[in-house]
Specification:
single chain; mainly alpha; Serine Threonine Protein Phosphatase 5, Tetratricopeptide repeat; CellSynth/LPSAsmb/PSIAsmb; membrane
Length: 573
């Protein structure tokens, strides 16, 4: 008669069962099995770590951290416990502690793949993309046959083409790697290759049908492919077209995202529908606010008009996103022509050439400025796309053995000089000098966009820049006080955004008030509305970011205060 299994053996069997359940997304069942394993053998660190991992996936970070710390106290060299603690610190926004703990896990595990993968991930969560890419390259060099390493490398790439290449290498090593399939499907959709996106997203969906994110990716790709291939139909035609092209299982999976076409559309484009509904509600609220008394409407209408104005940019971003994807496809085809011919062809379709032609036409025929302004606006957007693509290509080709050394040195130099020169007395003197300069220009050139009567616009701009500077100093102080808490990162981001807003206000005012007067009556004056559009849109976006951060910080402070009141009330007898 065989001996009965020991508690350790029963715990190991339950741990394997928990891991199998976690692999298919049944987290609650996985938690139950892990708890049974920990109860069978309370001293078994593997069972407790499996339970901590499941709890972390369920969002119960505090319980997971307590279990991992207990294991680390028992086994100081446990790389698994270190990884759990590093991931928890990263989720909480304690990025420095997360990076250090991940490095300890790499040392404790002699550089195993999972620890290196986590180190790259926490670098990226901390905003250090160069560090994330350095660690991903080291991971691929150490484990060249591991598909997940190339997936991590693809996630750190700036250029879509480089990311696609890394995803394809991962699929060469593991054709059924669902992360590589989903990532390559997302890149294909971003590059307007919707047929490829549907095929890849369907493969990723078959690998993990329970993943709602992959279901939504599949539905979005399928709708766009149907729309652009002109075979979309609100009822049976959509599923039939998918079945004819990709097979019946693909069509059934598409139908499973909703009982009707409207339900499938809502599932795929829920975020876009919510944004559109909010924008329409704000627009209706403006109409209602105009009927209120003048004293109220003069305050309410501008506040509602700002998000409505920003919302007008959404269709343009979507439109130019399609243009960018189409241009990436064209660029990939032009590269096949050979080096000299491809260079000439790519230059001919770049935004720089269109911008040069538009400016030349605008200066040559200023009377027809209304006709040439629109090509110039399109040329500016295309040029920005070109610059972003060239920057990403440069970032992916430059050496990364010393991560960000030059950037950090320049940042330290700029910060030291900013602390020395941007003091309140000097900013106040700048405001006075700007007001005097504008007053002098008022006598020399007609006023163009002055501020309130008797107060030059440059004075208003300087005062706003001074207020932004003060807010940045307050945010820096609050960042130091908050330490590694998530609100510390929010305060830091608020400070950086306020300084960017201050510089944007200065650029907009210099162009609009000073520059507009200097070139008054000159043909170049026709360019000024176009030049003002860039800082105006950028300033609106920065105002939105400031408002979002302030609301987030206010909500966090309110929640913290309510929790304190609740704890004090709970402690009372």
């Amino acid at each position: 008669m065989a001996d009965a299994p020991t508690p350790r053996q029963r715990a190991d069997a339950l741990v394997e069962r928990s891991r199998a359940l976690a692999a298919i997304g049944r987290w609650k069942d996985a938690e139950a099995q892990a708890r049974r394993a920990a109860a069978e053998d309370p001293s078994h660190t593997r069972a407790r770590l499996q339970l901590a991992y499941v709890l972390a996936q369920l969002g119960r970070t505090d319980e997971a951290v307590e279990l991992a710390r207990g294991v680390l106290a028992q086994e100081p060299g446990s790389a698994w416990a270190m990884r759990l603690l590093a991931n928890a610190d990263s989720v909480r926004g304690r990025h420095a502690e997360a990076i250090e703990m991940a490095r300890q896990a790499v040392r404790a595990s002699d550089g195993d793949a999972l620890s290196r993968l986590l180190l790259s991930t926490v670098h990226q969560r901390a905003g250090d993309l160069i560090g994330a890419r350095v660690e991903a390259e080291a991971l691929v060099a150490a484990f060249p046959d591991w598909a997940d390493g190339f997936v991590r490398l693809a996630q750190t790439r700036h250029s879509p083409d480089e990311a696609v290449q890394a995803y394809r290498e991962a699929l060469r090593l593991d054709p059924e790697n669902d992360d590589a399939l989903a990532g390559l499907a997302g890149q294909s959709r971003a590059m307007a290759r919707y047929r490829d996106a549907v095929e890849l997203a369907w493969s990723a969906l078959r690998a993990d049908v329970a993943d709602r994110g992959r279901q939504r990716l599949f539905a979005r790709s399928a709708w766009r492919w149907l729309m652009l291939s002109r075979i979309v139909s609100p009822t049976r035609g959509a599923a039939r077209a998918l079945a004819d092209t990709f097979g019946e299982p693909c069509a059934r999976a598409f139908q499973a995202t909703g009982a009707h076409a409207a339900a499938r559309l809502w599932f795929a484009f829920r975020v876009e529908a919510i944004v559109l509904a909010v924008w329409l509600a704000l627009l209706a609220a403006i109409g209602v606010a105009t009927q209120l008394p003048d004293a109220v409407s003069e305050v309410v209408v501008p506040l509602l008009a700002l998000p409505v104005f920003i919302g007008l940019a959404v269709p343009f971003f979507v439109f130019f996103g399609f243009i960018a994807a189409a241009r990436r496809q064209l660029d990939a085809r032009l590269q096949r022509l050979g080096r000299p011919l491809s260079w000439l062809a790519r230059a001919a379709v770049s935004g720089v050439l269109l911008m040069a032609l538009s400016i030349a036409a605008l200066l040559a025929w200023p009377g027809a400025a209304g006709w040439w302004t629109w090509p110039l606006l399109v040329a500016i957007v295309l040029t920005v796309q070109d610059l972003v693509r060239w920057r990403d290509a440069w970032r992916d080709t430059r050496p990364t053995t010393v991560p960000g050394q030059t950037r950090r040195a320049l940042a330290r130099w700029a910060d030291a000089h900013a602390r020395r020169w941007l003091t309140p007395p000097r900013l106040a003197a700048f405001v006075v000098a700007a007001a005097a300069a504008e007053t002098a220009l008022d006598r020399w050139a007609p006023a163009a966009g002055a501020g309130a009567p008797g107060v030059p616009a440059m004075a208003w701009a300087g005062a706003l820049a001074l207020a932004c500077w003060g807010g940045e100093r307050l945010a820096r102080w609050r960042t130091a006080a908050a330490g590694a808490a998530p609100r510390g990162a929010h305060w830091h981001e608020l400070g950086r955004t306020l300084m960017a807003l201050a510089w944007t206000v200065a650029a907009f005012t210099a162009l609009g008030v000073l520059g507009g007067r200097v070139v008054a009556g000159h043909p170049v004056e026709a360019l000024w509305p176009v030049l003002l559009l860039v800082p105006m849109v950028g300033g609106a976006w920065l105002v939105y970011r400031v408002a979002r951060l302030v609301l987030r910080l206010a909500a966090g402070a309110t929640a913290e205060g309510l929790r304190g009141l609740w704890r004090r009330g709970a402690r009372r007898p």
